[in-house]
Protein: Tetratricopeptide repeat protein
Amino acid sequence: MSDIQLDRDAVAEQLDRIVSSTDFTAGPRARKFLAHLVAEELEGRGELLKGTALAMDVFGRDASFDPNSDPIVRIEAVKLRKALEHYYLTSGAGDEIIISVPKGHYRPKFEYRPLVQTGPQRAPRSGLPRLAILSFTGDDRERARLYREGLPEEIALELARFGQLSVISGWHEDAISANRSAVDLAARTDYVLRGNVREAGGSLRVSVQLSRLPDEALIWSDRLRIDADHADVFGLQEEIARQCATRLADAYGIVAEDLSAQYSGRNGTDAGVYEALLAFHAHMRTARLSSLNEFQELAQSALRDNPSSGLAHALVAITLIEAATLGSASVEDVIETGRIHAEKAIALAPNCQEALFAAAAFAQARGDAARYRNLISRAIDANPNATLMMAMVGGWLAKSGDVDRGLELVRAARERNPLLPIWVSISMVVEPLIAGDFRTASDLVRDIDARDSIYDWLLIAVAHALAGEQDLAHAAIVPFKERGIEPEDYVSKVRMDARLRARITAGLERIAAI
Structure:
């Protein structure tokens, strides 16, 4: 962010851009709230933006207003912050002026971010899966209504973090609603998420259903029971939304698996990008050279068809990371090409998690530690719901020396998404290896197939060798011999934590000695 002093006209134009966007998901009160905050700040009265004054000036309360018994300002501020975050994750991702309302304050903040223009702007994402969230139905009692109104907002925000999914919000009057005709609905979206909240006996039952259009085929449903008097309503809504978003939009989630089973191509140019994304997920499930070849072909094809897609550039960059991991290309041969694609991906799609991860990996390979740390943190923050990427980032962190943080991400990813492939567990061996607990390390990887990943086979071989399991160690080192790759040479070109490198070197020496 830049500290450039913004003029009134630029901020006013940005405000108009926000409130006129269908991706700004605030209702009429929150829109009025934002306009008032911006106007007061521009008029030099920002210091006067306090809760009691706002309650009277914006929400029609009188002088007897008590913020302890009437949390209207705090509630609307939370909604406004969520709506702004959703806007800047979607159609506002390319805006140069950021309007925000920092937590704990009502005074707005205006920031300027210069954006790198590397080509034509990306076309509308008509080829990506589209999911509409309809207003939730159910009881009109106060506690049920809090969840009916809040959950669609929260779910849309968490889904919007998955940049490969186009989300149509449904909780304000301009968005798609349940009374639209089936024809109109099918013309605008591929999937519809409906929800219902009912209250009985001090409990709330929340149910959600995902249907595929145009046939309204029900492809997923779930329900949960929660305490109607839960102390942290907003926190609980956020957790429910995160779980729902992961189940729907994550790798191996409902939408991806449904489209994998029946995907037949789309007319939009982004269709090729989504096919490449599915190929990426399929490859990470198997990690074979054959699946990598298919992933590479689809990623290159998607990039040719849509050169302004940040996700397409990111996927091409990831194919190069995987080529080095599987030993079909040397590390030094992929660094520069991969870096170019990853950096262009970030310029085109600043919040694309795949792009941030790839750019971090190539920054580390080039020895740029500061940029690596910045990018890997941004990758984590971009979408904590994307468990496949979280597992990949976590494994990368563990290998790089941030073992506790990395393995915490891996564990959380495995817990949130049990459909993740078994290979994500291999990174767990780093902790006992560094600690010198070789028996535990050997036991952790004893029954895991590392597929065609020579890096994973290296960890497995070293764990067995240091534990004295020489037969298992020699079997695990075979993929290196089959590819004509010297393990010591490979290790010398891969950046990793010094403690881990020392263990790997000792393990390879033990294998060579027998």
Notes: The chain has four domains: 8-112, 130-247, 263-385, 416-514. The mean pLDDT is 86. The beta strands are 97-100, 109-112, 130-133, 137-138, 166-168, 191-200, 203-212, 217-227.
